[in-house]
Amino acid sequence: MAVVEVVGVKKDYVDRGAGTTHALRGVDLAVESGEFMAIAGPSGSGKTTLLNLIGGLDTPTAGSVKVDGRELATMTSAQLSDLRRDRIGFVFQAYNLIPVLSAEENAEYVMELKGVGSGARHERIEGLFERLGLAELRHKRPPKMSGGQQQRVAVARAIAAEPAVVLADEPTANLDQATGRALIEMMRELNRERKVTFIFSTHDPMVLEQADRVVRLVDGAVTSDDRKAGGAL
């Protein structure tokens, strides 16, 4: 069974001054557990909108979105919150870190909500922070960090909770090439070792090169869906 199923999804935004924007125009997409895939396309193609719908952060104008076989449209707000906490990790372009918490506290936040003990939380974060070059920043708060540092903390938060699916919106956009490559390689290891599904939106050629599957969107519609030989089925 697909971990994510998108069927006939449309998303319209209505602006009285500008009229209706058709962000997505009947998208069909099935993502199997363990895939490492990218959604590519120019700015305004609908990549972020599609990720937000899969994550239950927005609702489609038409069509169906299922995660783990559950139709998101039929779930209550509390059920959606539980699904996002337990099954979905997010990496946003805007980071969405809590400014009054340290880097370490931000990275542990979702694990704490899930009831992971303090010892296990610290152990996971210590290893992730070392690999992401964040060890010296663990006690800093987001306002004292650069954009790239905040992005790495956001990635650590998403991965540390060990979700079934990670949705990453331009995860390497604010990173230098070396850090970005290290980040994607770490995600790839988690994908292979623990079968965590990754869905990226990206412009980054390096991310597209690493992905097993690349789905391209143009003007809200899928124009191609290419899977590399040996990629997850």
Structure description:
This protein starts with a strand and ends in a 6-residue tail after the last strand. The strands form 2 sheets. It has a 6-stranded mixed β-sheet, with helices on both faces. The protein is of the alpha/beta class and 233 residues long. Helix 3 (103-113) runs parallel beside helix 5. 35% of the residues lie in helices and 30% in strands. Strand 9 (213-218) and strand 10 form a beta hairpin. It contains 7 helices and 10 strands.
> Would you state the CATH class of the domain at 2-97 and 163-227?
Alpha Beta
Q: The biggest beta sheet, please?
A: 6 strands, mixed
| Form type | globular
CATH architecture type of the domain at 2-97 and 163-227: 3-Layer(aba) Sandwich
User: Which range does the strand content fall in?
Assistant: 25-35%
Average predicted confidence as pLDDT: 90
Written as H for each helix and E for each strand, in order along the chain, the element string is EEEHEEHEHHHEHEHEE
Task: Please give the share of residues in helix.
Answer: 25-40%
- What would you call the structural class? alpha/beta
Strand order of the largest sheet: 6-7-8-3-9-10
In whole angstroms, how far apart are the ends?
A: 11 Å
Write out the CATH superfamily name of the domain at 2-97 and 163-227: P-loop containing nucleotide triphosphate hydrolases
Count of helix runs:
7
CATH topology of the domain at 2-97 and 163-227: Rossmann fold
Total count of strands? 10
